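Write out this protein's structure.
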Amino acid sequence: MQNIFDLFRLDNKVALITGAASGLGAAIATALTQAGASVAVHGNRRAADETAAAINSAGGHAEAFQADLSSTSASEALYTQVKQKFGQVDILVNNAGTIHRNAAEDTLLEDWQQVLQVNLTSVFQLSQFAARDMISRSAPGKIINIASLLSFQGGIRVPAYAASKGGVAQLTKALANEWAPKGIQVNAIAPGYFATSNTEPLRADEVRSRQILERIPAARWGEPQDLAGAALFLSSRASDYVTGTVITVDGGWMGR
């Protein structure tokens, strides 16, 4: 009988994690390497050199890449570079994201378009490149998109972010429907309120921070490593019969 823990091993697998210079992406990359994967860690503004160095110093295998995903041509360039370096991509984690805070009536079209490009369009582009490659190799694969609580809720003063993350949830389901017969599972993780750079303004606002914590049953902000278990599960053979789902990792927020 197969040991259940073997299902979580990622030996000989290659994972591409976008937005892995810090925060959630770096924690996910670290977790996947601990399970045996080699990882391509991407940074949007700068290469994820620190993440790669930390992984390599701990005995893992990581290579750092940089691509500005606000450009429509960056996704293909990034995927091509990773493929040339590693030869294949078995696991894609679409984690890179951006947020623009402003009243809806004052949001500029260029700000809207940039958020949608980074958070949604690049997710589709990279998923498409990965799936084409997996299908051509007749190889199973995993695609994990990082959604948000605002995939379910509207938020305040972040209309483009809410629209993009709602789109991520629906895109996840659409791609899962098409690619499940080809052995590719597509799922999403919706993090709750995590202590990352995106939430610095919220954590610095004493009133808003208190209101958020009062609603979270766990009574704390999430830490990046809190996402590692869900990411590993969805990257591994343990989730081979899980597809088209959005898993919330939110300290109980959505159940409140």
